[in-house]
Amino acid sequence: MNKYIHAGSPQFFAFNVWSIESAKAVMDAAAQTGCGLILQTSMKAYEQLDKEGFRTYVKDYGQKNDIKTYLHLDHCRKMEYIHEAVDLGWDSVMIDASEKPLCENIVITNEVIRTARQKGVLVEAEIGQIRGQEDDISSVKAGIAGMREIEEFLKNTDVDMLAAAIGTVHGLYKGAPDIHYDVIEQTAQITEIPFVVHGGTGLSDGELLRLLSYKNVKKINISTDVKLAYRRGIEESIRDGAMEPKGFDPLRVERRIHDSIQQMAAEKMELLKKGRTM
Ligand code: 13P
Prior knowledge:
Blueprint: E1 12-16, H1 20-33, E2 37-41, H2 43-48, H3 51-64, E3 69-76, H4 79-88, E4 92-95, H5 102-117, E5 122-127, E6 131-134, E7 137-139, H6 147-156, E8 161-164, E9 169-170, H7 181-190, E10 195-197, H8 205-213, E11 217-222, H9 224-239, H10 250-276
Parallel strand pairs: 1-2, 1-11, 2-3, 3-4, 4-5, 5-8, 6-9, 8-10, 10-11
Antiparallel strand pairs: 6-7
Helix pairs in contact: 1-3, 1-10, 8-10, 9-10
Ligand 1 binds at residues 16, 74-75, 134, 170-171, 198-201, 221-225.
């Protein structure tokens, strides 16, 4: 079993990507910084991918360049995709049944664990509701996970990673983030199961470093920042004339987008390294 995340494993940023090109940009940041990484696909991105081609590219490029890369299916609500990703060699999957009552969330999560374990694939589950929009998954409720709920969930599932809502949001923050660090701390007192933080975009370096100071936080998700970096690459291309009809230069545009994503991801990875020395 490729149990790449566990109580003693390193901490990771997990970046949402949607193509070989966006994956390569993040992997180049990992090569640059010497950090491992998780590449994750939302359900919507997963639907659009040539999945086998994507997996083969990511695994080959990782091996060739000595980059520890793990593939994760993010916020999945469709059993058929979970089965397929497990069969195709994704390293982990997230079942998102957080909008269901707790008892149903437990039943669904256990069903996913049964499927995934057979192939050594890890399972992440969500409790409480993480607010905001992540591609086609959205929630307007701010449901901070309660400790009783977390305990009950952990007593009844053997999940590998726990994403509990702590006040971070998917997408851009309206106002200052109100992060319930106490939920992370109290969870560490009852379990060694790795804690996953969603909604990493928009958190300051200080907030990210504080999250990384909790040794049970093993995965912090970054999605919107990848898209914003992509956008900056296009904006730079417009500014420097690479998008003009005369002299239009797709290679230069793609290089700008790549470099913009790589730079953003490398900056986050440097925080991982800084966190290790604190
Ligand atoms: P952000 O878009 O806020 O970075 O959230 C990403 C995320 O949590 C994906 O599951």
